[in-house]
Write a structure and sequence with these properties.
Elements: H1 3-19, E1 23-26, H2 32-35, E2 47-51, H3 55-64, E3 88-97, E4 100-109, H4 115-118, E5 136-142, E6 147-153
Parallel strand pairs: 1-3
Antiparallel strand pairs: 2-3, 3-4, 4-5, 5-6
Length: 156
């Protein structure tokens, strides 16, 4: 391969790595129903199917994650935005609503040294927290429009 192709490949890899959050996991589809049963915030309605996201879908999501910082909540804390985005662990799950593919993000604030210390099984199990305010939130990412919808923070 030419040196130019190698350099472009390295730049692409660095770009992708810079968009990847520190703590993320892709949940298996069997956890879908449990993830939609949030106790102090709405969850998406009319979900037809759940699926484990693939690498390509994850990379599309992560290329747009910075935009979530500008989104305003539609529930609980209307108009609130996500503060300190890098201090969250993100659980991803693919959902299909009205034939449209989305990625649902369940976000958990990390107040200890690491997500693994605070939520020992967060990589393989749904973590639901009642209340907690802005420390916990959920949002849909529309894979077709590359936009976020239904940002909801937990209740107080």
């Amino acid at each position: 391969m030419s040196p130019l192709i190698n350099i472009l490949g390295l730049v692409f890899i660095l770009f992708i790595q810079n968009n990847e959050p520190k703590y993320w996991t892709s949940l298996d589809s069997v956890h879908g129903k449990a993830l939609m049963m949030q106790c102090s915030r709405p969850a998406p309605d009319n979900v037809q199917a759940f699926w484990k996201i693939n690498r390509a879908d994850r990379l599309v999501l992560e290329q747009h994650l910075k935009a979530i910082r500008k989104e305003k909540s539609d529930y609980g804390r209307d108009g609130s935005v996500i503060a300190e985005f890098d201090s969250y662990a993100l659980q991803y799950l693919g959902v299909t609503i009205k034939g449209q593919r989305y990625i649902y993000i369940n976000a958990l604030r990390i107040s200890k040294k690491s997500a693994d210390e605070e939520y020992p099984n967060w990589r393989s199990c749904v973590i639901r927290v009642c209340d907690g305010g802005q420390a916990y939130w959920g949002v849909l990412f529309n894979l077709k429009t590359k936009s976020f919808e239904q940002l909801y923070f937990n209740g107080p």
